[in-house]
């Protein structure tokens, strides 16, 4: 039986569990066999955190939670489960109690803020023709176009959902900053990483989609966090 913890990967807005595909392949090569990528509905923080908790509850051993983008808010809310031993934030929101992703965004508006468009049903989209420059400018254009067309839009109201008991105050945490992020301002990322007193912070010269464009570095960072939990 592997001594490595289970890893649960949580995606963010405008994507799904498949955004982790490159990281999953690399972690598998590193010997992680208990890998999970939860598909959250993006309908509310409560719904998304509950879906994540349910997946964590099915795992008997220790868990490392990893969140990208809004997924960081989800693991902040869901990460107090007793078998969660650590949290890794990948260019992610890490709100404090009473804070929401939307409130944090307003502190330093990201470059791509004007490229978001609500629809008549309350969902918030990245304009597909601007997805590449907004979300993943360091990936090939064709890949960005596909991601824009297949994006999974959140209910806009989810931006305003606040955290109650932030798990990063109770669990060891790690943070990866993307210095060329157009979706979450790098200054906001740096502030969140600093205040959580993360065990380690790294900065990658990457877009918001560092999990795809810098997958080797992201997988190595997750591996480093997971390995430290065994000691």
UniProtKB/TrEMBL annotation:
Domain of life: Bacteria
The UniProt record lists the keyword Hydrolase: yes
Keywords from the UniProt entry: Hydrolase
Pfam families, per the entry: Abhydrolase_6 (PF12697)
GO molecular function terms listed in the Swiss-Prot or TrEMBL record: hydrolase activity
Stretches assigned to the AB hydrolase-1 domain: 7-220
SUPFAM superfamilies, sorted: alpha/beta-Hydrolases
Name this protein carries in UniProt: Alpha/beta fold hydrolase
């Amino acid at each position: 039986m592997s001594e490595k913890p289970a890893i649960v990967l949580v995606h963010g807005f405008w994507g799904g569990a498949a955004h982790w595909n490159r990281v999953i392949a690399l972690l598998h090569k590193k010997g992680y066999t208990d890998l999970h990528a939860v598909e959250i509905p993006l309908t509310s923080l409560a719904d998304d955190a509950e879906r994540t908790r349910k997946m964590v509850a099915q795992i008997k051993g220790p868990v490392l939670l990893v969140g990208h983008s809004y997924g960081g808010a989800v693991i902040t809310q869901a990460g107090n489960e007793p078998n969660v031993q650590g949290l890794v934030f990948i260019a992610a929101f890490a709100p404090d109690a009473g804070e929401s992703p939307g409130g944090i965004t307003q502190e330093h508006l990201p470059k791509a803020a004007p490229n978001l468009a609500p629809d008549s049903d309350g969902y918030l989209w990245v304009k597909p023709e601007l997805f590449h420059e907004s979300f993943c400018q360091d990936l090939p254009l064709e890949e960005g176009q596909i991601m824009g067309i297949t994006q999974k839009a959140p209910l806009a109201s989810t931006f305003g959902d606040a955290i109650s008991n932030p798990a990063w105050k109770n669990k060891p945490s790690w943070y990866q900053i993307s210095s060329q992020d157009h979706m979450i301002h790098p200054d906001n990322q740096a502030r969140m990483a600093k205040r959580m007193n993360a065990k380690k912070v790294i900065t990658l010269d990457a877009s918001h989609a560092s999990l795809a464009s810098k997958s080797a570095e992201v997988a190595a960072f997750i591996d480093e966090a997971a390995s430290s939990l065994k000691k």
